[in-house]
Amino acid sequence: MSTAKLELNNKTYEVPLIEGTEGEKAMDVTRLRAETGYITLDPSYANTGSCLSSITYIDGDAGILRYRGIDIAELCEKSTFMEVSYLLIYGHLPSQEEYQRFKDKITYHSLIHEDMKSFFTSYPGHAHPMAILSAMVCSLSVYHPQLLKPDQTDEERDETITRLLSKVRVLAAFAYKRSVGRAFVYTKPELDYLSNFMHMMFTTPIQPYVADEVIRKALDVLFILHADHEQNCSTSTVRMVGSSKANLFAAISAGICALWGPLHGGANQAVIEMLEAINKDGGSYKKFIDKAKDKSDPFKLMGFGHRVYKNYDPRAQIIKKYCDKVLDHLGINDPILEIAKGLEEAALTDPYFIERKLYPNVDFYSGIIYRAMRIPTNMFTVMFALGRLPGWIAHWKEMIEDPGMKIARPRQIYTGEGHHNYVDIGIRP
Ligand code: ACO
Questions:
Q1: Residue 271 contacts by C-beta under 8 Å, 6 or more apart in sequence?
Q2: Quick one: which atom of ligand 1 is closest to the CA of 265?
Q3: Contact partners, residue 239, CB within 8 Å, separation at least 6
Q4: Once rounded to an integer, what is the mean pLDDT over residues 322-333?
Q5: How many domains does the structure of the chain reveal?
Q6: Looking at the structure, do residues 60 and 114 belong to the same domain, yes or no?
């Protein structure tokens, strides 16, 4: 095993080196504290690997994203969200038989307990659907106590996974129906995963929704693009919560909350709000670009920048193409799309963005497609959550099946007051 030499207080320590399949390099510091008394300090984990993982590979400098070794563009072109979900969770593309079994199980589990409907109606009409979704996913656990055992068999784990995959889209559609004050619509077993979701969202008692092929394909691609992104904030949250052996429902519910933030998945809602504000302001990008560059102004160009990508986000490139396709197909002339393209062009030629390698990320164009599909802005992050679900599940499964798994527990460097005595201010009876 190759090692690096670390010199501390006139003593030399050997730190083991690790190399990933694609040549990613790391120093293994797991024994560092025990051997030297030192920990490594890396706030916000910008330079810390939290696990070994064989699910997703990203090369942020080259703009590469692969699931289980397969390039994202190829998956978008040739695969489906259901197949990609299987690939992420089980580690290989399914055979026809495995695929059919997986789909059948998802269809079989596509109802939620009738009592849960009353939860939805207890929320105020203006409740954010991410709050409802996160609470409902955790509440699902109440109805499946048999699936909460920390040490499940493979079959029990599969049962939990397929139930969750199937039911979360029902919860998402019901959260939407609640927010618009319409009757809940049940799944139809003859429809595929996505058509069913669209049916539950848009069918009304007076008008059935029939999925349009261009829209369905665009949604399929969006979900594939969102399906995993290795150790991002929400996935790390799912792993962190799951590492305590809390059940999958609880871990995913926590992941949904982490995704909600505007610096993460919530950016898709924030982008549309920003583009609308620019439009309302007369459409001038310059003012907003100047605001984003001004360090005394908290404003950021939403949908721009990424912790890992220092190149064009490959997902944004694909989404941009679908954006044109969907709007053309629907005959929509959305001024927001023109503003987005103009803003992108202006930012990409501005030295501030060039020097910092800030490019559009996955959230920059996705909201424009959702908007064209008549999905309300506050549902955008819910759509992201549905897409990310198989990735969260895959990471939870990878972690829980690792025989060396331990509870996640970072350390800290304490910077508070030194030891001093209690001062009695005389409030005790
Ligand atoms: N607008 C203006 N300046 C930016 C932006 C932006 N969107 N993003 C980063 N910067 C600047 C920072 O101010 C910093 O400048 P400095 O070096 O002069 O201090 C520099 O670029 C580096 O940025 P960091 O904040 O260090 O980057 P970090 O990796 O911590 O943050 C993040 C990444 C959170 C995505 C950030 O770029 C951001 O807030 N973007 C807008 C929100 C967004 O689109 N989030 C979605 C990300 S994709 C996803 O999670 C699905």
A1: 302, 303, 340, 363, 364, 367
A2: 51
A3: 50, 51, 231, 251, 395, 396, 399, 408
A4: 93
A5: 3
A6: no
Q: Is the CB of 341 under 6 A from ligand 1?
A: no
Q: How many CB atoms lie within 10 A of CB 19?
A: 10
404, part of any domain: no
Flag whether 70 is in a domain.
no
- Name which residue sits closest to atom 27 of ligand 1, judged by CA: 307
The proportion of the chain whose per-residue pLDDT surpasses 70, expressed as a percent, equals 100
| Residues whose CB is less than 8 angstroms from the CB of residue 109 and which lie 6 or more positions away in sequence, other chains included | 162, 163, 166, 167
In a domain, 234, yes or no: yes
Helix residue ranges per DSSP H, 203-266: 213-226, 233-242, 248-260
pLDDT score, position 201: 95
Which of 64, 95, 116 is at the close of a domain? 64
What digits encode the pLDDT tens for the residues 21-55? 999 999 999 999 999 999 999 999 999 999 999 99
Pocket test for ligand 1, best of 269, 300, 319 (most atoms within 8 A of CB): 300
Q: Tokens for 406?
A: 């331990």
Which residues have a catalytic role annotated? 306, 363
Cβ–ligand 1 distance for 248 under 6 Å, the answer no
**Which atom of ligand 1 has the smallest separation from the CA of 271?**
44
Q: Give the predicted TM-score (pTM) of the model.
A: 0.95
Q: How far is CA 264 from the centre of its chain?
A: 8
Q: How far is CA 55 from CA 73, 146, 391, 407, in A?
A: 16, 28, 8, 20
Determine if ligand 1 sits within 6 Å of the CB of residue 363: yes
Give nearest CA residue, ligand 1 atom 11: 356
Residue nearest to atom 45 of ligand 1 (CA): 263
Indicate the top mutation candidate among 306, 315, 344, 355 to test ligand 1's pocket, ranked by most ligand atoms within 8 A of CB: 306
